[in-house]
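dumping this here before i forget
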Amino acid sequence: MRDSDSPLESQPGPGRLVALVALAFVAGAATGLLGAAFRASLDGADRFRNALIASQRAEPITGFLVVVGVCAAATLIAAWLVRRFSRYASGSGIPHVEAVLRGLLPPAPYGLAPVKFTGGVLAIGAGLALGREGPSVQMGASIAIFVGRTFRLAWADRRTLCAAAAGAGLATAFNAPIAGAAFVLEELVQRFEVRVTMAALAASAAAIGVSRALLGDAPDFDLAALPTVGAKALPLFCVLGAVAALFAVAYNRTLLATLAVIDRVPLPVEARAGFIGAAVGALSWFCPGLVGGGDALTQNALSGSPRLEIVALIFLLRFGLGAISYAAATPGGLFAPLLVLGAQSGLLFGGACRWAFPTLEVPIESFALVGMAAFFTGVVRAPLTGIVLASEMTGNVNLFNPMLGACAIAMLVPALLRNAPIYDSMRDDLLRHERRRATAAIGGEAVVADAPPQATPAP
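structure:
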């Protein structure tokens, strides 16, 4: 529809803005409800997987095959749902949301939300190292598109509502309302817009209000208040930023290379997903605590209690597991696995600093927390989101200064190495796939149909 067809378009500016913010509250509340249900379902799936493993211990061989078979089947079904009903539900979904906001792809059909929800529960519940935030973000965007079309909003307003509800999805996933709003401006639209800001704040507030009413309001991670860092120790956190950035660049390249390799395997997508699920199921039999989203691993790293040699092994394992899990083409995000790796890398660096400087008075947990923000920044290139996210998830606000230094370096190093942000690379890959698909569908003319007519690429 044209902008002039919108009943809200003819209203004066203040009335239209009030209507937009009111609808942002509606879309945010719906996103919070769906996101809370998604989180609760994932918790239930984790409990089911752990109970299944425990119940099969009495028969080692048969039990092992049962666990492997269940995980393989769950992952295969998740990939089939995506291929059969909603191809845009594959992976995180954030690259697709960004492409929609830039007018490069059409919004996903309404069937995305149930596929994303069910497929995410199956895949993450099977133990794949994927996060809940990607599905929550994309489901929030899908809800906003539905609300916008229902109220016949112009594309400019639908775009604003879509970005706001997507941020509300992130806020719900991590119980981090400010990070959700920051994510909208820093990553999704990548510029400050007053209308988007108001809608994002309204949507995040509504989403968090609903989700906390259902799930509680405690931070995701239990971490005692950490002391501020003195000026003498700040250079160490800048070095941590450089180390985290190098790990982040390696992770980006590993992830993209794994996706390219798996894509060339001459098997149906469901079969590839099934094999990956079976491998993850086998790992879960021997090490059930190492699979899944990884919140428990992040909590252990933030507690500073694990032996560092064990942390190093877990870091290497999760580094590869995250890339392989994402290659299964099932619903699931990147943020939660990134936080695991960031906390562990920070903990390892902090242990090295404590060994090199025995008189250092900085708690090792401080390095783990700053490592979360720095590694996230190195991968995504959204430092403000990373800083606020790490702070809100742990309830600690005393480390902003070392986080700023670490994240500045974590932005600088990938820029010098000419490594693109992960979502930029994934969005480009998604657009290439869509162009090839369109070319095959219409016999040579590469056009993506039904793109929003009023949308223009962001500068």
